[in-house]
Amino acid sequence: MRKSIVFLHRWAGLAVLAFIAIAAITGTIISFDKEIDHTLNKDWFYVQPSGHRLAMDELVPRAEAAFSGRRVTFVRSPAEPDRAFEFYLRIPSVAGSEEPSMFKRVGKYRTVFMDPYSGKVLGVRESGEFGLDKRHIMPFIATLHYTLILGDFGKWLMGIAAVLWLLDHFGAVYLSFPNLKSWKKSFQFRWKDAGHKLNFDMHRSGSMWILPVLLVLALSSIYLNLNEQFKWVVNKFSPITTVECACHVDPNAKWLVDTASWDGAIKLAQQTKPDLTVGGLTFLPDTRKFIVSMKGPNDLTEEVGMTRVYVNATNGELMHVHDRSTETPGDTFMAWLFPLHSGRIFGVIGQIIILLSGIVITVICVTGFLIYAKKAKARDAKKTQTASASDEVRSEAIVFTKTGNINS
Predict the structure, then answer these.
(1) What are the start-end ranges of the E strands in 225-299?
(2) pLDDT digits over 357-376, tens only?
(3) CA angle, 150 as apex, 155 and 229 as ends, to 5°?
(4) Are the beta carbons of 332 and 5 closer than 8 angstroms?
(5) 268 has pLDDT over 60
(6) C-alpha to C-alpha distance for 164 and 115, rounded to whole angstroms
(7) Of 75, 66, 71, which Cα lies nearest the Cα of 122?
(8) % of residues, the chain, pLDDT over 70
């Protein structure tokens, strides 16, 4: 049994080693991605408050005027007075678009950073654009972390690696605790011995000390990369409420041109949920809906918000409200996964934990490879020694045979 677990642990670890190492190294950086990005690009994210912010109905056309054929489909509107607004622009997936075909990939969009007081465009960022300069370094690292810059194929690779990594933890626990009497050894580091013993302890004990974090990261990685498959499994244990309402205004609609007031949708959402604040606004031109994201003190993170108010984008009427009062255990479980993965659910302390965990995971990957290399070398040496011994025995047999023949 133990030999089988050792075998599976060795090869499963080697199979996911590169994927986990890349995720760990990049994860240490993106644990503070927003803070780093905002520091590097202060001229994009921060503004000097002056008077009143312009109406959303005025800001959206200005953002769209910067790029012909693109529509604003999401707005991030921070409540802080010194923060710029972020407008995400996409193009319709229909024939005749003015954009080159390379921009028709799924998920391609531009982000326009705008001063909400003057309407001035501060900067533009193209999603998926390669760059190591200060404008693109953080989105590039985040894309590398989640998809290896391989798109949907990369997401699948990272998702499968996460599944193997999660399962491998159970084998690691079995090997680390062969019996209850020696459980303390699995948490100790033989600093004085150094060499292979310390390397082994850093691999085994390092894993055991942060095992809960490792399990959470592995599980949440599966959720982020194999989302639909993960939901299907969770749904077998507890029903998952579909956040996206089925309240289509017109199922056959195509890229709505004339919309109701953006500000009207925001005002209606504020009237519907007066105890919450607006964190973001989504526009779905294909199904003719505004979705106003509302956030409050009970939300798990400081993102756009977990409550959704759906507004008819043709006439401005309320369609549907999705709040947390009807959450199932499955909904709650799913809602916790990304905040736990990023650590932001616990604020700065959580982010620091994720950062340090990324460093430890990198060490675990390196020490694991060194253990494999040492044992592989020992196995090769043993094979060589066995082969040499066999050759020696064979040679002696030949000599004995020849001698016996002569004597006879």
Answers:
(1) 277-284, 289-295
(2) 999 999 999 999 999 999 88
(3) 15
(4) no
(5) yes
(6) 46
(7) 66
(8) 87
